[in-house]
């Protein structure tokens, strides 16, 4: 009998399973989502889940460091290096992914390796998706447990940066554990969880925020493709740097791991390059579509992929048009999802899309920038506020070019304004006696004397024209007598379908019941001039 079978509720006599008591977490029917933590208190499940995530992400970095130590332990130059130091190096790199500065041989590196941050977030997500408890107590206990785990490691490796370690751990745990718990089969959907927040926002703001998130994701995808192009174009320079360093297989593995840790930073720098302001790697350097200024840089193979002068000037100056194109896609999303009744609605949605994209890009660029050492390397990355401003403006322009002209409310307002300026009367399409034509709309009071006025829809014309095929209403006909009715209805006449009968109106004739149920007329009626 499996563990899942032992946790199954007993069945009643008729074979139906008894309802589970309120407050207990339902057992999933999928074996993948069942674990040994099922049945424990929610806070304990959350704490153990976060501890599992912290250990997994830490071991991913510590074990390769120990392996590198074992592989190089026979070297006489490493005689004074113990395995504890290898563990501290791996732990320091893990803390760097949580925002703790990395101290290497007296050099402080404040540049956050976003690859390690992504690894920690994914470990939290996978652990919570596997065995988390989608409750408030489980989530809070998980965040607290993860923060405590990071604080313990920071207290041993970098006690001076304990506050930054805890702050970074909270951010990682909220993103990873929160996303994983929402993906549990027994968890409420993201829409239900965030209802107290988005229900207070207008539909225009909600649609614009979603469009801004879509634009930011598309820009990151374009930046990743550009980074791949840079790596392919600079593969020869990367090879020269690796041969110049002269590292062996173990050293090459360590370099490769470090470069993978900082590869997402290069992708964000490529996003800054697409936006136009560009980025810098040390003082005196600048990489932008308009210019490339290269200065002395450290011997790091990844830096060999930075754009050269061939990627600057000429057609490269038009690269920021990508922002407008991505904004156009966001504007199309707004056009498809938003139902506006006023022109201000679509304008608010477009403005929200541009603002959301600017804020997201600003946060990413700020996280990918920092200090890579003393002196010239004190500033590496891009100016977050400038890149965010350029990105938001480009997305706003593209979204406005697509969403605003295609909005029905905007077109109607512009059409009314143009007709008001030109002095033209608004016209309406009317159908009279099988002919469709346009006629100006004139508002006149009900009962006004107008010989050329056409009766309103459903009204009875007391004196129809000779060409009209209408009939007088039945109320205007005198009541037929018995003799007149007998004379008008000959005996033995065949019953022809559709033929007129006394007492029954012809098809299309206005009846008394239809006019009696008509709502009262408005103070003004709309008539047309033929």
Account of the 3D structure:
It holds the Pfam family DUF6350. This protein has 530 residues and is mainly alpha-helical. Helix content is 52%, strand content 7%. The chain contains 17 helices and nine strands. A three-stranded antiparallel β-sheet has the order 7-8-9, with no helix packed on it. The chain has a two-stranded antiparallel ribbon with strand order 1-2. It has a two-stranded antiparallel sheet with strand order 3-6. α2 packs across α4, α3 packs across α5 and α12 packs across α14.
List the helices and strands and how they pair.
Elements (H helix, E strand, L loop, with lengths): L2 H4 L35 H30 L11 H14 L5 E3 L2 E3 L4 H18 L4 H22 L4 H21 L7 H4 L1 H4 L4 H31 L1 H11 L3 H27 L4 E2 L4 E2 L4 E2 L27 H17 L5 H25 L12 E2 L2 H20 L4 H15 L4 E6 L2 E11 L36 H7 L23 H5 L7 E5 L2
Antiparallel strand pairs: 1-2, 3-6, 4-5, 7-8, 8-9
Helix pairs in contact: 2-3, 2-4, 2-5, 3-5, 4-6, 5-6, 9-11, 9-12, 9-13, 12-13, 12-14, 13-14
Q: End-to-end distance, in Å?
A: 87 Å
Q: Helical region count? A: 17
> Would you tell me the structural class of the helices and strands?
mainly alpha
Low-confidence stretches: 1-36, 441-504, 508-517, 521-530
| Cα-based radius of gyration, to the nearest Å | 38 Å
Give me the side-by-side strand order of the main sheet. Answer: 7-8-9
List keywords for this structure.
530 residues, mainly alpha, two-stranded antiparallel sheet, 9 strands, disordered C terminus, transmembrane helix, DUF6350 family protein
């Amino acid at each position: 009998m499996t563990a899942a079978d032992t946790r199954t509720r007993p069945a009643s006599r008729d074979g139906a399973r008894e309802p589970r008591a309120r407050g207990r977490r339902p057992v999933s029917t999928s074996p993948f989502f069942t674990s040994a933590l099922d049945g424990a208190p929610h806070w304990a499940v959350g704490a153990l889940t976060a501890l599992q995530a912290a250990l997994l992400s830490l071991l991913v970095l510590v074990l390769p460091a120990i392996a590198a130590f074992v592989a190089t332990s026979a070297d006489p130059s490493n005689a004074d290096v113990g395995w504890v130091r290898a563990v501290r190096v791996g732990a320091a790199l893990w803390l760097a992914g949580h925002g703790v500065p990395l101290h290497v041989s007296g050099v402080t590196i404040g540049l956050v390796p976003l690859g390690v941050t992504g690894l920690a977030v994914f470990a939290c997500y996978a652990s919570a998706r596997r065995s988390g408890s989608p409750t408030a107590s489980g989530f809070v206990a998980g965040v607290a447990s993860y923060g405590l785990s990071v604080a313990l490691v920071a207290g041993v490796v970098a006690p001076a940066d304990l506050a930054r370690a805890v702050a970074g751990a909270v951010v990682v745990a909220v993103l990873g554990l929160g996303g994983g718990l929402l993906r549990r089969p027994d968890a409420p959907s993201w829409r239900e969880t965030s209802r107290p927040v988005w229900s207070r926002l207008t539909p225009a703001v909600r649609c614009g925020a979603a469009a801004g998130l879509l634009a930011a994701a598309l820009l990151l995808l374009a930046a990743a493709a550009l980074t791949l192009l840079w790596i392919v174009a600079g593969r020869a320079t990367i090879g020269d740097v690796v041969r110049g360093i002269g590292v062996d297989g173990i050293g090459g593995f360590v370099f490769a791991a470090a470069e993978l840790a900082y590869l997402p930073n290069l992708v964000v720098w490529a996003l800054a390059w697409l936006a136009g302001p560009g980025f810098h790697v040390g003082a005196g350097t600048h990489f932008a579509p308009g210019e490339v200024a290269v200065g002395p840089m450290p011997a790091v193979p990844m830096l060999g992929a930075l754009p050269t002068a061939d990627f600057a000037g000429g057609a490269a100056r038009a690269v920021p048009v990508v922002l407008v194109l991505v904004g156009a896609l966001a504007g199309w999303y707004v056009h498809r999802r938003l139902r506006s009744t006023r022109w201000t609605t679509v304008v608010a949605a477009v403005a929200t899309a541009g603002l959301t994209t600017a804020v997201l890009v600003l946060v990413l660029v700020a996280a990918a920038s920092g200090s890579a050492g003393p002196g010239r390397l004190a500033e590496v990355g891009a100016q977050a506020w400038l890149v965010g401003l350029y990105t938001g403006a480009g997305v706003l322009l593209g979204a406005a070019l697509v969403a605003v002209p295609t909005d029905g409310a905007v077109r109607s307002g512009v059409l009314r304004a143009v007709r008001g300026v030109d002095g033209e009367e608004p016209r309406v399409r009317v159908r009279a006696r099988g002919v469709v034509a346009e006629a100006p709309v004139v508002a006149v009071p009900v009962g006004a004397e107008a010989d050329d006025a056409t009766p309103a829809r459903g009204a009875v014309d007391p004196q129809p024209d000779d060409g009209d095929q209408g009939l007088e209403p039945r109320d205007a006909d005198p009541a037929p007598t018995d003799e007149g009715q007998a004379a008008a209805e000959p005996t033995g006449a065949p019953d022809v379908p559709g033929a007129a009968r006394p007492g029954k109106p012809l098809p299309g004739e206005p009846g008394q019941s239809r006019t009696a149920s008509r709502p009262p007329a408005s103070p003004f009626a709309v008539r047309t001039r033929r």
